[in-house]
Amino acid sequence: MASWKLVQKTKQILEKERGTVYKPWGGKITVCLIYPNRYHVGMSNLGFQTLYRSFNSEDDIVCERAFLPDPEDLQEYQDTQTPLFSLESQKPLSDFHILAFSVSFENDFPNILTLLDLARLPLESRLRGREHPLVMGGGVAVFINPEPLSSFFDLFVLGEGEEAIEEVWEVYREAFAKKGGEDKADLLKRLAGIEGIYVPQLYHVAYGEDGRIESMEPEPGFPRQVKRRWVKDLDRCPTHSTLFTPDTELKGMALVEVNRGCPRGCRFCAACFVYHPFRSRSYSLLEASAREALARESRIGLAGTAVSDYRDLLPLCQSIVAGQGGISLGSLRLDNITPELIQCLKQGKDRTIAI
Fold first, then answer.
1. Which domains are assigned to the chain?
2. What is the pTM of this model?
3. 15-38 pLDDT per residue, tens
4. Vertex 297: Cα angle to 295 and 302 (nearest 5)
């Protein structure tokens, strides 16, 4: 029995949202997309929102969300023995077919175990059977290094999720259509045949005394190195805010992703290499995305790993200002700043920029 207090708080959160997707469950693959931090943080994550929109665009998939409970709610879950449930339907996570974690930061790794425990699921993959949800992980923290979490996940998507996820759905649909489902081990082997999918149980990892990996041997028939997937044409995957709420760090702002990767190649920066090569979206697509976003919010946040290296940044900002929109940029390189750009940002009421 779920805590009435927790259910009521969830419904109050949903009442403030715009863009929430509700779907009936009957006969569909059910996915709970999980951000391993609080709602206030996770709802500012553009990758998380992009996956939510992408998963729900499939007619036969229902995607709902879950987050790390606030401290006071965490205590309520424990005191009332309420299993962790999703936002949209308040169904227990154990009722879903798939739990998909979007992991952006290593500091959130311990929260993943907290969430699995709250969901009343065995923490280790080897202890979960066909009766449990499939637990998959993705996000930049995972494709930098998934190994610290390898005992707890059934599979990882290494690289940009948009590129591999359709192939994952195709394989899972075949398993879902079988009467009684498919044996978990067989399903994971078929999923491991997709480029970019890492199934830890199919790899034997040996560690040295210092804790470093000494060797990593795959089972016969699987690649020694799992290749990272990346989207060659970003225009194929528009990335912008689709969910809006005042209960988030970036309230009042719609995010639009400009580019991925970076042409600079600074050795200290992981983003340059995990998102390699440098790619930008076309001006026409970004201008249309910004115009659409201004119908939802009055301010546009231009996101990317190298926004100031985007060649059409000035005309894009001018277009947003002409549409009576505000502008927010996270950072600018000193060598890309021009008087015209500063004037445009001033008109767009951008008050703080890291140089």
1. 4-218 (3.40.50), 252-347 (3.30.750.210)
2. 0.95
3. 999 999 999 999 999 999 999 999
4. 105
